[in-house]
Amino acid sequence: MLNMADALHKHPEPSNEELQKKIAELEELNRTKNSLLSFAAHQMKAPLGIVKGYATLFREGQYGEVSEKQTEVLRKIEFTADELVDLLANVIDLKKIEEGKMEYEFSKTDLVGLAKDAVDGIKLLAENKKLELALSAPTKNIFVQADPRELKHVIQNLLDNAIKYTPSGFIRVEVKDAGGEAVFSVTDSGMGMSADAKPFLFNEFVRGNQAGGEIKGSGIGLHIAKSIVNAHGGKIWAESDGEGKGSTFFFSLKKA
Fold first, then answer.
1. Is the dihedral of CA 207, 125, 131, 112 positive or negative?
2. What sequence ranges are listed for the domain Histidine kinase (predicted)?
3. What are phi and psi of 68, to 5 degrees?
4. Model pLDDT for residues 86-127, shown as the tens digit of each residue
5. 80 to each of 128, 141, 171, how far by Cα in Å?
6. At what angle do helices 111-128 and 148-164 cross, to 10 degrees?
7. End-to-end CA distance of the chain, in Å?
8. How many angstroms separate the CA atoms of 248 and 169, rounded?
């Protein structure tokens, strides 16, 4: 039987130099992976846009009448194309965030207008799942200092999360003027979450604990949303009364 000294002799601890070399190799592999993912994402966005565009034209009758069954199939094509485009946008942003290369162009931005545009963009997805979709917002503008493209990306990720984890019921979007802050929220009647899950919600590659294999997703949307909100000097958080009781996701930014 080997004693402890023999075991240590046969399996010596790696030297600091060897560890540093392994770490450098892993970091290089990670950079290569990120570059390939980003390249693939960029290359796929345009073809997907074309696929969705033609599906929409067919569904709207631009190439002749379509039956109810054909309309349903074309809606599914549009839905899938939108999902893939959102995923590709997340992959591209994740690479930039990991490498510290995320660039923002801040300007005076109307949060109410961004919310309206984003809600309009998911109406088709909500209709496909027969979900009630509602937006509550002031009639006047609420301005924040933000990068409008990236802030809209945050809103889209939160709405996408609500769509995925709400099998039936409703999604309610609200924009509020809270004194010195603007607050955006998305409330759903979906799967909810346990108290134990809350601290990990915005971590990379974390998905809802009730999702199982039935719900498609990358687990990076909320992580990216948090990174963008943090870069804007804001706060992002979630609330839920428990599993099966729905969720509300919030973010707040200082008003401009």
1. positive
2. 39-256
3. -60, -40
4. 777 777 777 777 777 788 999 999 999 999 999 998 888 898
5. 11, 33, 20
6. 30
7. 73
8. 14
The single-letter code of the amino acid at 72 is E
Topology annotation, domain 107-254: Heat Shock Protein 90 (3.30.565)
- Please report which residue ranges of the chain form alpha helices under DSSP H: 4-10, 16-59, 68-98, 111-128, 148-164, 221-231
Question: pTM for the complete prediction?
Answer: 0.70
Amino acid occupying residue 229 = V
Domain ranges in the chain with CATH number 3.30.565.10: 107-254
Identify residue 195 by its one-letter amino acid code. A
Question: Which residue in this structure is represented by tokens 């609330």?
Answer: 239
Q: CA-to-CA distance for 100 and 96, rounded, in angstroms? A: 6
Look at strands 181-188 and 170-178 and give their pairing.
Answer: antiparallel
- Look up tokens 């019921």; give the residue: 169
